[in-house]
Please model this.
Amino acid sequence: MMTPASDLLLEIEDLTLSYRIDKRWIPAVRNFQLKLARGQVYGLVGESGSGKSTIAMALMRFLSGNGRVESGAKMRFAGEDLLGKSAAEMRAIWAKRIKLVPQNAGAALNPSMRVGPQVLESIRAAIGIDGVEAERAMMRMFHDVNLIDPEKVARRYPHELSGGMQQRVMIAMALVSNPELLILDEPTTGLDVTTEAVILDLIRQLIAERDTGVLYITHNLGVVAQLCERVTVLYAGEIMEDDRADDLFHQAWHPYTLGLLGSLPRPGQNKRDALLHPIDGNPPALKDSSHACAFAERCAFAEDICRDVKPPLESLPDGRAIRCHRWREIRDGELHLVADDSAAAEPAHEGRAQSLMRVADLTKHFTVGRSLADVLSHSAPPPIRAVDGVDLALNAGQALGLVGESGSGKTTLARLIVGLQERTGGKLELLGMDIRNSVRERSPDVLAKIQMVFQNPQNALNPYMSVRDAIRRPLIKLRGMNPGDADAEALALLRSVNLRADYADRFPGELSGGEKQRVAIARAFASDPDLIICDEPVSALDVSVQAAVLNLLARLQDQNGTAYLFISHDLAAVGYLADTIAVMYLGQLFEVAGREDLFQPPFHPYTEALFAAIPVADPRHRVEATLLSDALPSAQYIPGGCRFHTRCPRAIGPICEEEEPPWRDAGAGHVIRCHIPIEELTEAQTKSAAGAAMD
Amino acid sequence: MLPIGQRITASLQMIKALLRQPASALGTLIAAFFLFLALFGGQLAPYPNPNDQSHNARVSPTLDIGSLQFGEHPFGTDRLGRDVYSRVILGASSIFRIAGLGTLFSVLIGSALGLLMGYRGGMFDEITGRVIDALMAIPALLLALVMVGIIRNMDFDIGSWQAELSNNVVLLVIAVLYVPVVARVARSATLDIKTREFVEAAEIRGETTAYILFREILPSVIPALVVEASLRFSYAIFLVASLGFLGFGARPPSPDWGLMVNENRGGYYQLTPWALEFPALAIAILVIAVNLMSDGIRRAVQKSA
Amino acid sequence: MLRFARRRLFFFLFTYVLSSLIIFFLLRVLPGDPAKVIAGGREAAPEQVAEIRAELGLDVPLPEQYLSWAGNFLRGDWGKTIAFRGADNRDLILERSRNSARLAFIALALSVPLSLVLGVIAGLSENKLPDVLISLLTLSVVSLPEFVTGLFLINTVALRWGRGPLASAIGWWFPASSAVPANASFGEMLPALWLPAIAATLVLLAYISRLTRAGVIEELKRDYVRTAALKGISRRSVILRHVLRNALLPTITVIAISISWLISGLVVIEFVFGFPGLGSLLIAAIERRDLPLVQSIVMVTVTVVLCANLFADAAYALLNPRIKLE
Model:
């Protein structure tokens, strides 16, 4: 690594970290190294269990009681030995010089203390100023992190702030001492894509003004590409590859890096064009050191040597570091990831577009806090209009994607369709027939036709029911099979989701997240449904596992001719799997388009903003302008007129605030609900796209 | 539900975790010892008739800890010439029967009610919840005293089921007192489990309420119920002893520990302190043991969760 | 705020009415013919039964009986005792309640600070020696039935030590019997209060300290504690300013709930020590089958318990910003 010694801020060598589990010390991180210069933004990427957060905690000397740094490690911060510091010295460093912005700012702030005093406490510890002076410093910092109305924010309790605002407060708290090193541990995970973009933009801008070294820890390759100069890829506690971001994203030489990049759908990429390259298997659990390459089990290029000898971490002259026996062959283009392109063909079912489901003016208004007391005292706040008049049509075998921020009502819409919640208005037709409100009233026939895959595989399976029983139950209940047939069919279903037959007797506790989701998918397909609702089916999974599940969903759809309603906040994932895409905002649809049309102008201004917010996994394609402020209005108090006008970057005047916009037809089934005529939208958006390309 | 083999392994693991903590292991062993006394007291007591007054009255304890000599009346005899040692041994059975069965009933009824409240929600939950609140607003011991007092004074025909019930009034009281408590615990555990997606998956399959309650939700609620049951059991023992002491439990001359303590306090204490001290000690040891055991169960369950 | 208060108040009233219905059911409906019970059961003379029935208004339909009883209770007309030579129920109950309240006050004043300190120490040293010792203490000695500890205190402190060299001092401060006149003043009563108060303190100690410990342990694991520590402030500040603030909030509720627990305990303790409180009155009333008196006593305790809960709810809501008071 070619960093002048004087600029070197942080130097870690041979860092091995262990956790005590069942009376044994098991290494979670092995021989980690890092050289971080002042002002440099360094990315640390890894999936769950890669040890990335452990490294951050070790670096701050804040490991939990069951963790320890093994001897032989070196950690030098600004030339000082961190490992030799006393507790008091470390406190002084925490106060001023090394700051952490953690994931989930909501939990990281004291819930019973107003925000102001919490920040002031930090200022006092860091700079030693108090009173009016400290308050002024806080206001300045709040202003720098774009908190609107800082005085008011300071008087709020954390739970009264939005997720984005909470994270701004955390960032303000960290930067107020002008630290030399800033550790950002998944600071945008759990935030909406639009909020994430705003926060990333803010971070980028703030560190550009300072000489702070930044260690950015995340699982999200897109975010790293957007922000970092250099990236270390971590797997199972070991460095796999380390390089300048541009090289890493464009010429990765490690099979794992290649796999991660290949498993990400890019915006506009669709299953019909090219399948994703999933990485086989699952991220490893914490286990004792083995002599094999940590990635060998899942590596497409693994040879005998990979399973017998752990490859060394080689430092190459150009500054790259890599741990692989076969990197030379990859560099020279002798090895390629080969996509399984069998399913990329057009489905046999297209063409005969038989209508499957129609939704007309569907609404769901939740009444808030109506208890016995409210009923008897006749007082009730306005209802939450979670779904507020949605029209939607779905053909047999069609995959309809539904995108929107959290709070847009997309999950409620799905639950109305599947019958887990009762609609308060509108119509729902399946195969031309009205269907009843809730699952309790629906006949087994109707139930069998609509099934669901849930977001969180952790909770999707009953922990006390074996895989076999979980899949057999719908076969018996909804398809009337006898137990013997159901057993055989369950095994066939298991095979179809690429799980071996011996998984049938396992319990959910013995499965990884990806495997659980496969079982849940098999269970959903068991009743041979016409429609499967997939509610964020991959968002809780590790990156390397997501692609395999997406491919599986694509293949099963083609084989069975099942229609999907695919819900996601991730536009790229939706674009990959869906034929048609609907964009939802505060309980209403704003745009419906075929997948070819959605990714180019004209867009609804909201869709446009969503696109702009996607962090693309390519350092050469950085998102510069963020279009949306971070707060989605409450569905209890929806703005009048066009409900997007409070945030719309293209609002054209009072009409947006006063009148509901009309649906405008952009041709070929592409409709947009906006006051701006289609032609003007196209023109403005083509222009700004061209402008962005020239930068 | 788990196949039987899995269930047994899981229980064994829990028992192992329980025994690994020294204090809880000791508590469990002592509780098991008392259970043994309760089951086989009739065979173990030197004088199987608790009201055998044929001995000399006010004999001092002959137990000699140093040489482990029990002697004729290890715990002495009371003022009526009854062998305290035998009475203490024979008293174990009633306390276990009443506290154990009372807890069992309250856990069975309470968890069914709580499951239904949590899963159904709505007005049923709201109204039942309020009734539970109202019931729990009456301090437990007061409610118990009032119920025992009233039911005992009702004149039932001898041999009728009401008379049978009134003989077991303490058992009934324990069930009534703890059903609301258990129901609350089961309800809140159910509320947590019911939002899990596997329950929704069952609803989408059109499963019946009974199936969802007992096959999908109950297995996940059981750990919380086990902890609560062990806690209730320790409170039940406490309550049975207290009621006996206050004269609202077993009637004389039964060898109930609480009653024995009450009968031998005041002026009698000066005469035969041992007749009070040994049953009191038995209560103290059993309560402490069951407390330690239930605390161990709580830790073991929390650990495995 | 208003909405919240109204809601709470509504629940309070609703629960109160339900509780009174339960009590009414237990004492007027369940016994079949309360007049007969009061008059002495099977052997009661029919004329006497009829007389009692007329006096208590038992010959009107049940809903009417309930309404008139509830109305009378709220008006403060609690009737005359049957068992205590026709004393006024209200005077009797209020006098005994005052005595019990003195006992409860001392018990709370001793146990709340002590158990908070023990709970916090145990929580901060989870699974280390102080915690293990405190946990063993609260699980064992302190959780014994009140009559066992009460008798132990009487037999050991008052009787055994009372004969030793400090006999006169101990004899005055810790009398073996607390059977003082019911109308004694606080000062006169004070010596008689110590031993029962200690027994009652133990009742609460285990309960409050264990819940406090659990609260501290739970809060210590939260993310904001890490944030606070990484501000570089002292551990003392982290604990005092951040952890305890959140950990001790729920204790308000715990203390309120323990009032009900304390009342149960006091019944036994008053009985053991012969103290003229509400609890010993209740036992006497039940034994003498004075059902109207029992009914009023239970209603009084329910009122106390529900008011304590209401107070705790309000205090918790005011102190905890997470509860929205819109």
